[in-house]
Amino acid sequence: MCKTLYIWKQQKMLIKMKKPILSKSWLLLTGGEFKLAQYWLKQPDVQVEETEHGQIICTLLNRTESIVYEGLSVFINFLKYLQEPRSFEELLSWGKQHEISNELIEETLQTLVNDKILLVGNLPWKLTVDSRLWSYLAAQTSSLDKLYNSEQAWNSSRVGIIGVGGVGSRVAHELAAMGIPSLILIDHDDVSSHNLTHQPLYARDSVGKLKVNVLKDILHNRYGTLIEGLASPITQEISPLLLERLNTCSIVILCADEPSVDILASWITPHLTKFNIPHIVGGGYHGHSTSTGTTVIPGLTGCWQCYDSLIEKKETYRSFQHIRGVSGSFNPLIQVLVSFIIADTVSVITKLTKPLLTNGVGDFNLETGKFNWRAGSRDEKCEICSHITNHYVNFT
Ligand SMILES: [Zn+2]
What we know:
The chain is an alpha/beta fold. The chain folds into two domains: 2-129, Outer Surface Protein A, domain 3 (Alpha-Beta Complex), CATH 3.90.930; 156-310 and 326-375, 3-Layer(aba) Sandwich (Rossmann fold), CATH 3.40.50. It is built from ten helices and 19 strands. The strands form five sheets. The protein has a six-stranded mixed β-sheet, with helices on both faces. The protein has a five-stranded mixed β-sheet with strand order 2-1-8-7-6, with helices on one face. A four-stranded antiparallel β-sheet has the order 15-16-18-19, with helices on one face. The longest helix is centred in the last third of the chain and has 20 residues, at 331-350. The chain binds zinc ion. The site of zinc ion has 8 residues, from loops.
């Protein structure tokens, strides 16, 4: 998509705008009154180039959009100056130095906010490190305040992961790489030789060691993540210690499939829901499909219990003789599941993107490339979650 907008044909004159300046989106509503925002900042993903014909091309890298402005080099300098959060006074003073009127500065700011080139708000958020994650997330909003609060939430979060096999170990690895400061890993399994092909964080020399300890060493050494490893089995009677630790998490992810994803979820999700802790059920891949979701945000979405009728119950029976089969693992299928889980974890913690796996349960089928989503809704009479009130703001 490409639109043309004329800004500074001559240094001091705004000659033509494609759309009239009517919106007041750059004014913030505080305490019932409109107030001038305190800071402006160029979106980190905006790439600016000046052509030899005097056009300024702003490419919004994360948003596959380019906007072409007619202008002079001073416009690029203005955007260069806005690579740090700038107050209105600073911008006016910059204008004065470059002989640009206050009105033109105001109109230009308005245009650039409308075109999603600038972030605006009262908190001086900026990309603190060379973080591709935060450049991506910044492009989801125009609000510096939202970004500031989301980054604070991310940097003070703790994620609990139950089961660190094919899915859980990857989820832990990705989150640690993305800067999650603290993880609680729960798994009582040792690394086995048959894990090595599809759980690549575990090396040959880690066979026989507790998975949580191996991961703790790797992720702490690599990313400095604070990691608590608990080698406790999950049983129907969840231990008070485990519940106490889970209660300290911002979100808990269920990635274990023993005895089965559904049974494990039915044991543990009622506790998490009652504690008001968001959680993602997403531990199973079998055949060529993965069970994905649900993501539960207590008070906002339905809980595992609400979707009981959507879950296929498998009959269990006692066997007297059996030949043990070897269940298959296909790394691409695991990666798909991990991607859904990570996307929803980012969403729940930062609230800058929408969670994908709420209000239902589903399966992604790698053979067809299709998602089979069984939609559900919050059960107003659910004994687990109906009384919980929503403390969440809306997702962007
Ligand atoms: Zn419920």
